[in-house]
Amino acid sequence: MTRKPAAPANLRNGLKWRDGRPRWEPSPANRACGFAGLDLKDAAGDWMDRGAATTSADARTAWASIVRAAMRDDDAGGKARGTLRAALDRLPPVSADPASRHKRALVADLIEHGRAVLENREPGMTAALSHGPRTVGALIDAYFADTSAMRNLARSSQKAYAVCAKRVRAKFGSQRVDEITPGQLRAWHTELVDEISVSTANLVIGTCGAMFQWATWQDPPWLAVTPVQRLKLPRAKGRRVFWTVEEETAFVSWCDANGYADVADAVTICLWTGARQVDVCKASLDDLSQTTWRYIPQKTEKKDQEALPGILAPITARVDRRRQEVADRPVRQIGSPPALWNPVGRRHTSITIGHRFREARAAAVKAGALPATFAGKRLQDTRDTCVTRLYAAKVTLARIGSWGGWSQPERILREHYLTLLDEGAVEDAGLLKVWARDQGLTWAA
Fold this sequence. Notes:
elongated; DNA polymerase, domain 1; 3 domains; 3-stranded antiparallel sheet; hpI Integrase, Chain A; mainly alpha
């Protein structure tokens, strides 16, 4: 006769072992609170081994202890209810992973008991899933813990959202998600504008929008409709800054003569393609050796929005200089060398070329090669400069958009740059003068 394996020794926290079948049994105190026992099976329906069963029993015992303490009517019960609320608020949303969902299911009845205690009602699983307390603080934690949501964000966006989330937590962290109203968010936006700036305020509310939208997509949803909609927030004003041809010529020449040829390369490529510095850092010499450069800007790669600038003589000259620099180096690379190369021997990144540019700009101004006003120019302004040059060259709006990957070049020009094109206004005034003369109008000189 085959003997059944003996039950493991040193069982704890209500774990019972019956003929190879583990089960959690509540203590008398827990049973008096209405907590039921539970057979311990895995997600596939098989009996758990000792390790998994012990972990599950520990989890059920821990939740039962917290909820049981919260059911007391004395001061200790009040403190326990605060601990219980914090524990419930920290719970992440139910995962799509079957194993994670099963772990939650093993303690779901105790979680529901806890919610019922805090909401002063009878336990009911459906009501708990639909109306359980969800704070903004818990939403922030759950949103950043969702790996699929983070994969849909660029790394730079993740960092920006994380910074803004600190402000959101400080303002609304303890409030329920479904209690936040559009009016509250709009009023807070006004406060942020007065305290910081329009652009930062918009970024913070944009972060709220992403998190609240995520909350509506969960199953069950944290709230039915996001409060971040139709707020009609003001837009930040553009910098209204661009480089003159004289500034470009003087700065590039100074850089070439003073050990900043890499900065001159970056400035020239950015000015004549309208590319952002991060995209130029990713470009190779082969990319810029054709008549056009087809690429997808990093900022719009999720939209698959392409840019296609033409390659002009100033860029070709910089590429030739760079190729000669590569040929003179003793070390050879596999594949096409990068267009921008840090003097320390590494491919430039957006951060390193930005640092080099600021260093060169300060030195050029100090040397008197450029006026003091040039200290206010940024490398990012080269993209703005390119769009104004294309417009001044009478390139159509459709072609301007495809050149640099601008989705709305007409709005960019109207809101930020056309006011700077004085020569265009003078030209238009001349055309109007001719029209007036043709209509028989004469004006005194």
